[in-house]
Design goal:
Blueprint lengths: L3 E7 L2 E6 L2 E5 L7 E3 L5 E3 L15 E3 L11 H6 L5 E5 H6 L3 E4 L4 E4 L2 E8 L7 H4 L2 E7 L6 E3 L6 H10 L5 E5 L17 H10 L4 E5 L11 H10 L14 E4 L1
Parallel strand pairs: 3-6, 6-7, 7-8, 12-13, 13-14
Antiparallel strand pairs: 1-2, 1-15, 2-3, 4-5, 9-10, 10-11, 11-12
Length: about 250
């Protein structure tokens, strides 16, 4: 089984090679700034590297397009130049060049099968306010099976995915306990505790947390996440990536 070369750009944006292709999750390449709207989001840090320094971007995995912390202005401008952008069915109606997938729908690109999987962006019933979100499973002969969670806060959703895909080798979990106050104390993404619960559901998968720094509404630090795993004797499962450095995972 080969290993994955990955580089954390920052926030939810991870570039990695898989099956001979370059994949990019939720593109965010703006410099720090604020995004007014129903709820104003504040970006605190810019990208560790520009998109031009990443190498080939053959596929974008876009969990959803409605929130600037998952698709900012520079990330949106990048999409027309990418050969394949996979997103929600709603994203495909709003953005040209997006191929929309329903949960459990598969799409083949080269030697890689990408399957959209459910995600719940907040507590039960959050979709009415947060909108639909998807994650992704990547599979290819000779490659590890990779799960990219997207903005999912539900361990039950992770359990449902693990039942359908019992062998997941690498799990890219959107963490950071994102919280803008819309649902009180209920987070919009995994927090340290629920990320650890998800890791237990995912058996021996290497856990790669992203979406855990760079925005004001991420309410927990990467250090808290690290300590949660270490105090539970699961520190060996966690790979905290240094932004801007390409590393090998597997």
């Amino acid at each position: 089984m080969t290993k994955i070369n990955a580089l954390l750009v920052g926030g939810p944006t991870l570039h990695f090679t898989y099956g001979g292709l370059g994949f990019l999750t939720d593109p965010t390449f703006d410099e720090p700034g604020s995004y007014p709207g129903g709820i104003t989001l504040h970006k605190l840090t810019g990208p560790a590297v520009p998109a031009s320094a990443l190498g080939a971007i053959d596929v974008v995995l876009l969990s959803h397009d409605e929130h600037a912390d998952n698709l900012d202005d520079a990330g949106r401008a990048l999409l027309p130049g990418v050969p394949l952008v996979l997103g929600t069915e709603g994203s495909a109606t709003r953005i040209p060049h997006v191929t929309g997938l329903a949960p459990w729908q598969a799409h083949r690109v080269g030697d890689v099968t990408v399957t959209a999987v459910p995600a719940l962006h907040g507590p039960e019933g959050a979709e009415a306010l947060s909108g639909p979100v998807i994650g992704f499973i990547l599979q290819s002969d000779g490659e590890p099976t990779v799960y990219v969670s997207g903005d999912n806060a539900s361990v039950d959703v992770v359990r449902e995915i693990a039942e359908r895909f019992p062998r997941i080798d690498v799990a890219v979990l959107f963490a950071g306990a994102a919280n803008v106050g819309r649902f009180g104390d209920s987070d919009l993404t995994l927090n340290a505790r629920t990320a650890l619960e998800a890791a237990e559901v995912l058996a021996d998968a290497v856990i790669v947390p992203i979406h855990a720094e760079g925005w004001f509404h991420f309410s927990e630090t990467r250090d808290r996440l690290r300590l949660m795993f270490e105090f539970a004797d699961r520190g060996d499962r966690l790979r905290l990536l240094p932004p801007g450095e390409r590393v090998t995972i597997g």
